[in-house]
Design goal:
Helix content: 55-70%
Strand content: under 5%
Shape: flat
Largest sheet: none
Oligomer: single chain
Distance between the termini: 24 Å
Length: 76
């Protein structure tokens, strides 16, 4: 299991705003102090764009859905 975090915006957010946020968060994620903090807390920084985020979200939703089925976890 590998945790991750991301910044999500509402559907319909203008592309220019998404790109500005992506650049900003990529810079922050690449800063030595940020990387050190994340590594100290067991995280591996993986800056990326919305395409990478979408891919991770789809993969993890599928993976966790399979685990939930195996554990007989039902939504309430």
């Amino acid at each position: 299991i590998s945790p991750w975090w991301a910044v999500l915006v509402p559907a319909g957010t203008p592309q220019a705003i998404k790109e500005k946020l992506a650049v900003w968060f990529s810079k922050i994620s690449s800063m030595p102090e940020t990387r050190d903090f994340l590594v100290r807390n067991g995280l591996d920084p993986l800056p990326g764009d919305d395409a990478l985020m979408r891919k991770l979200l789809v993969q993890d939703t599928r993976r966790w859905g399979e685990w939930a089925k195996l554990a007989n976890i039902e939504p309430q």
